[in-house]
Amino acid sequence: MRPTPPSDPPPPGTLLELRNVTKIYGQGEVQVKALAGVDLRIARGEFVAVMGPSGSGKSTCMNLLGCLDTPTSGSYRFRGLEVGALSRDQRALLRRHYLGFVFQGFNLLARTTALENLELPMIYRGIPAAERHRHARAALQAVGLANREGHTPGELSGGQQQRIAIARAIVTNPDLILADEPTGNLDSARSVEIMELLVRLNRERGMTIVMVTHEPDMAAFARRIIHFRDGLIASDETSQP
Amino acid sequence: MNLLTTFILAIREVRRHLLRSALTTLGIVIGVGAVILMVTLGRGAQAQVTSTISSLGRNLMILVPERAVRTGGGGSTAPFKMEDMLAIARDVPNAVVAPQAASSVLVIYGNESRPVGVTGIDNQWFVARDWKLSAGRTFSDAELRSGRPVCVIGATTRKELFKYQNPLGATLRIGKVSCEVVGLLEAKGASFGNDPDDVVLLPLQTYQRRIAGNRDIGMAWISARSSDDIAKVQADVTSLMHERRRLGPGEPDDFAVKDMKEISKTVGQVTTLLTAFLSSIAAVSLVVGGVGIMNIMLVSVKERTREIGIRMSIGAMEGEVMQQFLVEAVTLSVLGGLMGVAGGLLSSAIACHFIKLPFVLDFSIVVLAFVFSATVGVVFGYFPARQAARLDPIEALRYE
Hints:
By secondary structure, chain A is α/β, with parallel strands linked by helices. Chain A has a single domain, classed as P-loop containing nucleotide triphosphate hydrolases (Rossmann fold, 3-Layer(aba) Sandwich), CATH 3.40.50.300. Chain A contains 7 helices and 10 strands. In chain A, the strands form 2 sheets. Chain A has a 6-stranded mixed beta sheet. A 4-stranded antiparallel beta sheet of chain A has the order 2-1-4-5, with helices on one face. In chain A, helix 3 packs across helix 4 and helix 3 runs parallel beside helix 5. The N and C termini of chain A lie far apart (37 Å). Chain B is an alpha+beta fold. Chain B folds into 2 domains: 184 residues, no CATH class; 166 residues, no CATH class. Chain B is built from 13 helices and 10 strands. A 6-stranded mixed beta barrel of chain B has the order 2-3-8-5-7-6. In chain B, helix 1 crosses helix 11, helix 2 crosses helix 11 and helix 9 packs parallel to helix 12. Chain B is elongated and about 105 Å long. At the A-B interface, helix 2 and helix 3 of A face helix 1, helix 10, helix 11 and helix 13 of B.
């Protein structure tokens, strides 16, 4: 294991920073080293695509970034907070106030209308009903589904469901959107629409987006592409616009 | 997230799975309903006992031939004689004694006939039992003395034999005796399948000579002048009868003087006990209903693992997930409780109507059953709710 680098103050504009982060699952003989010492800095306003074969550690990294899990060793600082030192509930509060998730399988509540799905994160934030409705409608507008607020996921196409899911992620105006293969269940035309929506949110609202994808076509929409291999970052390229 | 919002969300969840929710609460509905039904019927029975006893007459005792239970006997012994009655009337102060002899005899009028409790009495009987006539008259001294075939009939007997005709002056056949109806008793109302209004009263002499063919007196009603006299009268009659029935000192009585109030208390206690017993059986079904809720909630937590994962990724804390499922369980059980209260009251009203019991609404038991059902929700909702709250968000999101 490499020595932990000295904790210099992060450069301005840093949203999150991983320093020599490892994640080990299991114990003894069956130990699996999912992350083998990752250093990563993401600044506010970036659009990062994370690629890599399965088992390369990218999903583990996303779980850590999303404060759903804590590193085995090393330091993960989100907004200057050491996430590894926080309790389960404190991490839940971080997610509530600063994070938005978009999943491959959409993960909308079934038999629940689009509007109610969008209300959910705001309910946990304790926002009053009238304000919730206003924000939810605005978010639906932003993803182009203003006329679908009364529809349940079962009544919507995959592309529409993913737009609702994105609306749910942005409705609280989070600092960071984590998208885990958001186009994995969609055809290429729908995928491009979703990517254009994410790009627009990144450009127009300055939302920081970290997206896992298998498809280079989709990764090309991001300005920065990180490749994982064997629990380490194999490459990290930023293209100039 | 505040409790009201949680509650609203819980209602939404219940509505979303209407059939499942209905089946879940069925146990609670039946449990609460059964408790309310049992208690209401019990209270009705108690009220009936009380009113029956008070309708018997004031400060009333009965003198009956009866072997003391402790000697291992039971059952009746030798009847009384008219001389016993005269002795009581003479020697026991502050008491009215009304002898009676009775048996079931076929009574015929026109085409109608029915077996009726035919009872030989004297006019003291109306005093002791505090029972008035609604029409006609009681017996004259001459009728009592010479044993004339005249009778006073109860309201049920009148209704069954005469329908809407006027019975006064009509002639009944009682066994082999033709008998003129001279009076009509006020209705007292049926109780416990025993209808005191189904009766034909004859002068005691008439009954003894023409119906029974002996001079036995089956029992006597004894009414004390005031409630303070009851104990004294009871003791006096007991010692007098002990002597008159030629029982040695220390020999057990072969008769009993029973205070009707004591009997009513005993009956009341038995009814209360029975009510408690039946209610506790019903309460068990309430607990079974709670286990039903726990089962469904556990299945529901499993089924909604992904939803729980979504909520956690969005930022729900452990306590909030727990609260959500707990409130859902309580909402279900409270809804079940409400339906149970409604169903219990409705079925009680119907049951009371058919078994002719007064419908006594005990509000405290309604509240209690309701509170208990909510408690069942908390107790049996706790385990599934904790199960949900302890899920790992990553695992939960991956759950298929």
